[in-house]
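Curious: can you check?
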Amino acid sequence: MRGSESKAVAWASGPARAVPDAASIQRSQRSLYEAIGAFLFQHCLAPTPANYMLAYMLVTRSSPAAVNAIEAATSDGVRLSQEDANRILSEAGGQTPSQVHEEMLSAARVQMEEFTRVVEVTRKETESYGRELEGSAAQIARIDPSIASAELIRITGAMIKRTQVAEAQLAETTKEAQALRMKLASAKEEALSDWLTGLPNRRAFEDHYGEISETGRRISVALCDVDHFKLINDSHGHAVGDRVLSHVAHSLQRHCQGHMVARMGGEEFAILFEGIDVAQAARIVEAARAELAGKRFRARDTDAPIGTITFSAGVVTAGPGEAQEALMRRADTLMYRAKQKGRNRIETQA
């Protein structure tokens, strides 16, 4: 194991004091925190709860399966990719982002059931209040006036107490529901976002396409694929490949402002143009392609030249009533035609 990782392991597996003092505990916690951060930084992994858990398993040696898998994946000096991190964490019994989202949804269902239960209990309590009031009112009408006031005070006090209990239950459940609603909103946003680039993902693209198609507005789509991306990964490592994808994503997003740019997976991006035809869409994509192709890139860590980064694209406009799947197939066909013609070019529908 390398660098800060080996230091962290020595810390985690070293002899423990019988009664560690506060300063020793603080130093140990700081060492653990720094080692986890160093691992995430070294492998360019986002500081998400899932990645933190994986790093914790490695640093503390708490999961031999995770430690062995990480060492095997990085033995040749290649940085750990997010896909590998997710796989290793899942195999080691940790929670991947999708599993966290599923747990949130499960918690939401439980919370909604509890909220429904409290509302139903409150409704029944209210009905009980009404019946008790009716019965008590009849009794008060028959009893001696000197006793009526005391009986009324007793009933009122009981009503107030039961109302306060019901209000407290509702307030607590409402507070929990609001907190859960915020977590669900965050989980939904994460579920529709690409972890690496921050762009919308394939699911978000498909959802937005469906929304636009229902309006009857013109739709054009560009499908872009980074050229020779596997060579970049093989030559410079996954971390450099990830930064390349992020740069391409931001370049497309900057040129296509007002339109959705999504990462469809791997090195493939899609742009959803609303209200413009294929010629206008192609001009926008061409501007992004030309700017990117005009730059020369170097690896940040080694300063090794990466060279030119380019992409090939196919641009199409949806026909009347054309299904999304059919449109994407046409864009994909044109994109591969651009690859066959030498890459670093755009093909549009006739």
Summary: The chain has twelve helices and seven strands.
